[in-house]
Amino acid sequence: MPLVDYLIARDGLPPRSGDAYDYVLAGDGLYLVTENDALEVRMPVALAQVRGLPPLGPRFFLRGGRIPQAVWEDITAAARLFSARGQELLLAVTHHEGSGYRLVAPRQIAGSMNVLYERFPDVVLAVHSHHRYPAVFSPTDDADEQGFGLYGVLGRLDEDRPEVSLRVGVYGYFFPLPWGAVFDGRRGAFRDANLER
């Protein structure tokens, strides 16, 4: 099995054949397709009309279901606590069959403009805070988030309407996601920055 394979969607989505991911050419463009124990992703890489092939459209699926609102509330409470000190924070959400989603705080050194942290296994979502700054992914974030998983950033935590941005990352490719695709329940006072750009 090759690490990466190149496929054509002649009769719909072809079976996976790359170990890491597949590039799939479809009627509506080029997609990156992959999966792991937690996620299934079909991410557009380049949109285009390709005559004679069926369209596929993007797909994002959390195999364990959306992350519960209680986890979201714990994330925001911890981020606000660190924000009050002017520090960033990184939290991780893991998922295991039988025990569901769990919020963990990897060992880290939190600063005012960055956070150094120890890598943690089986992470579905890694989310960090930018305390009073906007919830946008920085070039440092892009360079750091090179695995396959979900990534989030919280910002403007000192305001009445703080921000959240979420995305799925697949080995350096990124695709923004609305809050409701990742979490179940309500996001509270947080604005979904992906929907307002």
What is the C-alpha radius of gyration, as a whole number of Å? 18 Å
The end-to-end distance, rounded to whole angstroms, is 40 Å
CATH architecture of the largest domain: 3-Layer(aba) Sandwich
The best one-word shape is elongated
Looking at this structure, what is the CATH superfamily of the largest domain?
Cytidine Deaminase, domain 2
Total strands: the figure is 14
* N-to-C SSE string, H for helix and E for strand: EEEEEHEEEEEHEEEHE
Derived from helix and strand composition plus strand pairing, the structural class reads: mainly beta
Number of domain modules:
2
User: How helix-rich are the residues, as a percent range?
Assistant: 10-25%
β-strand percent reads 35-45%
Number of helices: 3
CATH fold-type name of the largest domain: Cytidine Deaminase, domain 2
Largest sheet: 7 strands, mixed
Q: Given this structure, which CATH class of the largest domain is correct?
A: Alpha Beta
State mean pLDDT (0 to 100 scale). Answer: 90
Unreliable stretches covering 5 or more consecutive residues = none
